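for the record, two folds in this file. i put them one after another cuz i was lazy. first one right below, seq on top, structure tokens after. the second one comes after a little note so u can tell where it starts
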Amino acid sequence: MNEPLAPCPYCFGCKPTLSNNLFSFQVTCTTCLATGPTKTSHQDAISAWNELSTEVNQARKKETDEFVSRLREFEQTMLLYR
């Protein structure tokens, strides 16, 4: 069963494509040209792209949550000095 390609984790482009280069497969974003890992099967290339997408999105969410937390701490500190 073929799993669908996730959107690009870098530009959120929804048109990644799977390319076959003789003995390898790789997913490339047609919007920003980001590439996924090169694999020996098309299913492995899709899985690797989707894993990359998940990892990047999780890291982005963690960084955003940490930034929001620091911003709230700063806001509370500023309220003390009013």
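(here's the note) second protein begins now
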Amino acid sequence: MTIIEFKHISYQVKEKQILHDVSFKVNQGDFLTLVGPSGSGKSTILKLAANLISPTAGDIFYQDKKWWNTIPSNTAGKSLIVSSSRVCLAKR
């Protein structure tokens, strides 16, 4: 079962294109890791998935329903968990 799906998502702030035509899906039981350099859009993807910002193009689906059209009571008790840690490696 698909939990969340991004279809052709773009996000732009003024003249700055942050995401362009991003598509992926996360199925139940999957683990997703977002990796990339600073400014590549990792946090933007998480904000979109958490419904904190809206895409400038494309659609986000939560359990096969458009995320932006989901009635809040349908998402009650559901959360997005984000874990971020920094690991430093040093030579001995």
